[in-house]
Amino acid sequence: xxxxxxxxxxxxxxxxxxxxxxxxxxxxxxxxxxxxxxxxxxxxxxxxxxxxxxxxxxxxxxxxxxxxxxxxxxxxxxxxxxxxxxxxxxxxxxxxxxxxxxxxxxxxxxxxxxxxxxxxxxxxxxxxxxxxxxxxxxxxxxxxxxxxxxxxxxxxxxxxxxxxxxxxxxxxxxxxxxxxxxxxxxxxxxxxxxxxxxxxxxxxxxxxxxxxxxxxxxxxxxxxxxxxxxxxxxxxxxxxxxxxxxxxxxxxxxxxxxxxxxxxxxxxxxxxxxxxxxxxxxxxxxxxxxxxxxxxxxxxxxxxxxxxxxxxxxxxxxxxxxxxxxxxxxxxxxxxxxxxxxxxxxxxxxxxxxxxxxxxxxxxxxxxxxxxxxxxxxxxxxxxxxxxxxxxxxxxxxxxxxxxxxxxxxxxxxxxxxxxxxxxx
Length: 425
Ligand code: KE4
Fold this sequence. Notes:
By secondary structure, the chain is an alpha/beta fold. It contains 15 helices and 14 strands.
């Protein structure tokens, strides 16, 4: 037995599914998950010493690559001063000031410990601010696992093929309204029915949890207008796109400002960090200023702030990283599109900046329903081959590929060559 197999056998005894997050279980690809021992740059090394070119990047945080020396140095420095105080620190002020300086729509921000917590809190703030209850979300978008969001969610929920989660009482989702991504009429209909009862619309401005599905031209702008007209809060869930699509994320990329924005992943530099922020008048409903309660023992943890600050500061001071990521994205996803054309493959390649994916379906993909026409068996065979060739992609058709600043053109060329070999077989 391999080291991963041995560890997996032990893991399943005391951890549900042997993993601390379902999508890591490799369930949809029918394999034993790889147990990772270390990572550096664009590479992972598993407990058996196998080295993989990593296109998951811890699901997005590792935009500068794994074990970035700058980030490690700041984390080590912070650790020596103590790991957690449960008190205000200068690092939190610096982090808040930095994010507010990078994202024009964010005037005030609150640190939490995960993207889920950021979304849960942003929804509560929007409800507290508007005095309304209804929330519109989109089929296939994933916003973490708070009850209200576990309706036709993407990512691991979609991978598992369970449209909704057990254990969520109807009361938890009775105020969640479902719209169809890229179908603005589905949103207009909900506003026609519920109008002034709608507290907020939450969306992944570029969906990356049903595979990658970019917004159609004009879709986000119409959402912005509908929220403004109805005095509903527009929440951009930028846990993935934030600081990946540019210094101001999807809001800069698409030129649309949200009222609230949720963050995670990149702002933690690999440590557990989430955040929600936006208009001052909305954020000031949050305790202790306002009456919307939200709290967290480790929120703004000094070591996590050190990691996040190091990564964000570098991105802020080196905007050329985004140009490099876009060039690598064009090479990788452009090469994949070219391959699909040359080999007449029944696949759709989608890309947004350094994010991308390949749907195993001949249908055009623009939403949850069309994404689900993908042949997950074909994806599974493709995934296994790539892993055997040392390329570690997300073990699910309904996730994204993540490039980092540590990836090279040689890495991308190897990946394209390997894909060619697979599909030419
Ligand atoms: P976390 O609670 O996992 O930090 O963030 C939840 C979340 C919220 N919003 C968006 C847009 C997200 O993509 C996520 C989490 N992303 C998944 C990957 N698609 C996390 C991977 C996992 O569940 O293990």
